[in-house]
Design goal:
By secondary structure, this protein is an alpha+beta fold. The protein has one domain: CBS-domain, CATH 3.10.580. 41% of the residues lie in helices and 15% in strands. The protein is built from six helices and five strands. The strands form two sheets. The chain has a three-stranded mixed sheet with strand order 1-2-3. A hairpin with a 5-residue loop joins strand 4 and strand 5. Helix 4 packs parallel to helix 6 and helix 5 packs antiparallel against helix 6. 28% of the residues are buried.
């Protein structure tokens, strides 16, 4: 199965100078947790997630309408895939880079769609096949999800004995 069979199109996107308020509104209206940041030629240059927005707003103590997508889009490396990328390859990239979403781009870098971990899991659920391949696909998807969501910082609990 290729990414083209599970990706969301059209991908929601914004420009670097767009406010994070607008980006958050697009996410709310389209029930998604991220949008791509594109240049004037629709080339993917970054990604903005709902978590990124919340953390930046808290860090800067500024309202979202004062913050721009460019404030976030260069903070992390951008990982992408192509429409003909095998879903298993996309899962491996997500696990390796600890990301839940990948912009799907053409050979020239133009944004074609977005694939999320949830898109892959939804497709597996909808496939309804009881074959060994499906069981292996589930195992791989769940291992990827587990790897992505494992905290990178040690979990500490407050000492309440005092």
């Amino acid at each position: 199965m290729n990414v083209s069979e599970v990706m969301q199109t059209p991908a929601q996107s914004c420009l670097p100078d767009d406010s994070l308020e607008m980006a958050a509104q697009m996410m709310a209206q389209n029930d998604c947790g991220s949008i791509a940041v594109v240049d004037e030629a629709n080339h993917a240059i970054g990604i903005v997630t709902d978590r990124d927005i919340a953390l930046l707003a808290a860090d800067r103590h500024q309202p979202l309408w004062e913050l721009k997508a460019a404030d976030l889009s260069g903070r992390h490396d951008l990982y992408t895939c192509r429409e003909d990328t095998d879903v298993h390859e996309a899962l491996h990239l997500m696990a390796d880079k600890k990301v839940r979403r990948l912009p799907v781009v053409g050979a020239d870098g133009e944004l074609h769609g977005m694939v999320a971990m949830s898109d892959i899991l939804h497709r597996l659920r909808m496939s309804g096949r009881a074959t060994q391949d499906t069981a292996e696909d589930w195992r791989e998807a769940l291992e990827t999800f587990n790897h992505i969501t494992t905290p990178s910082l040690p979990i500490t609990t407050p000492d309440r004995s005092m």
